[in-house]
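Morning. Coffee machine broken again, so started the prediction first thing and wrote up yesterday's gels while waiting. Chain of 148 residues, entered below exactly as on the submission form.
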Amino acid sequence: MELVELINENIVKIPLAGNSKDDILKELITVLKDAGYIDDVEETYRDVRKREDKGSTGLENGIAIPHAKTSTVKDMTLALGIKPSGVDFESLDGKPSKVFFLLLAPPDQAGPHIEALSEIARLSRSRYFLETLSNAKNPKEAVELFKS
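Came back before lunch.
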């Protein structure tokens, strides 16, 4: 499954309101609940936080990819959030993260989960794409960037 297949306006939030790692995680999980992808916000948060406690998913160039395998989803699920001012996500380069991809997969779907993480990591190498994405004004604009 390609990343573009997972992205739609219902799972994109611009701008994110949170000002901490935990705020951002909870906000992205709530986006998925509101879109009907998950029911149990607390269990999902615990699973994502457990993964995050093993090592930050804040990469370089303003991107973070919090992710987890969780029984709260039946299929791989994604939420995208943008915080133009950035948030300290304990990133590899020490800079604030602005673009957040929350990726959730059922425990038995390791292959697609790893493929999606790889695809997001590839995108993170394009500073132009990330800068353009972090400047998206609304979910429609962000989704169009993935389809172009």
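Residues 57 and 75 are 21 Å apart (CA to CA). Going to sketch it on the whiteboard this afternoon.
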